[in-house]
Amino acid sequence: xxxxxxxxxxxxxxxxxxxxxxxxxxxxxxxxxxxxxxxxxxxxxxxxxxxxxxxxxxxxxxxxxxxxxxxxxxxxxxxxxxxxxxxxxxxxxxxxxxxxxxxxxxxxxxxxxxxxxxxxxxxxxxxxxxxxxxxxxxxxxxxxxxxxxxxxxxxxxxxxxxxxxxxxxxxxxxxxxxxxxxxxxxxxxxxxxxxxxxxxxxxxxxxxxxxxxxxxxxxxxxxxxxxxxxxx
Amino acid sequence: xxxxxxxxxxxxxxxxxxxxxxxxxxxxxxxxxxxxxxxxxxxxxxxxxxxxxxxxxxxxxxxxxxxxxxxxxxxxxxxxxxxxxxxxxxxxxxxxxxxxxxx
Lengths: 232, 103
What we know:
The complex is a heterodimer. Chain A is built from twelve helices and no strands. By secondary structure, chain A is an all-alpha fold. In chain A, helix 1 (3-15) packs across helix 9 (130-154) and helix 4 packs antiparallel against helix 5. The model of chain A has no long low-confidence stretch (mean pLDDT 88). Chains A and B meet through helix 3, helix 4, helix 5, helix 6 and helix 7 of A and helix 1, helix 2, helix 3, helix 4 and helix 5 of B.
């Protein structure tokens, strides 16, 4: 078997367990988007063009709350700033590749694929190892598009009483699960969450996501500095 | 702004955050301090989506009493801390939410 194909398959296998929660997430996204008033084509377009669960949910949430386009776009940018970190970490492994492959890899640089491929990259030094990320990313892509599609179709059939929209905060809560054990992270979470909840009605232009995130990051900067000083 | 323009702009900004560092960065241009701070970005941003969705009602006022989402989230969090399993966290939260509202 071709080595590139083998690594590609390994990427698919490694990322698969993480795909199970993506299905309800995609479904919920499809259902919510239609519910808010986007057309089926626009909803599918979001999943194809943006291809990022968190970004798309933030878009829906702010759009339905009547936020301006500028606030929506900058909030999506803020949510995505974590990708800068992913890119910084991955760049180390793909810096020798042609621009073409960097363009492709960037489209697939999503939470789950990054998490699994980063582990793989650290352990393997094969020059074709980037196919792992493409395999994982392509798997996420397929699952995300088909579950969005299913959500669009099922939309009307899912009873509102089930409260499926509650699955959105639950999904984000689950992403943070590893952070609940770390003291600084817990404090950052509490600061950001409290600012967002209290500021929801008072922070103008629905900018509460960005404002809360900045408060959270300030907390992280201050706390890590204090701890660093203590250790010196 | 039309819906399509909004979608395309959001797509562009999402793509650029993924693309920029891969293309601009050469090995080890990020110092440890910046890397350290960036690792807190998820903890800083996701609660801003989680907390209002749990604690606010449909009209946007804080609802602390008679709110099944609070108890369900606490259960999900406890399950998450002990199992470290994303799936178990989501489903325990949903299951307890349904148990509370239907019984």
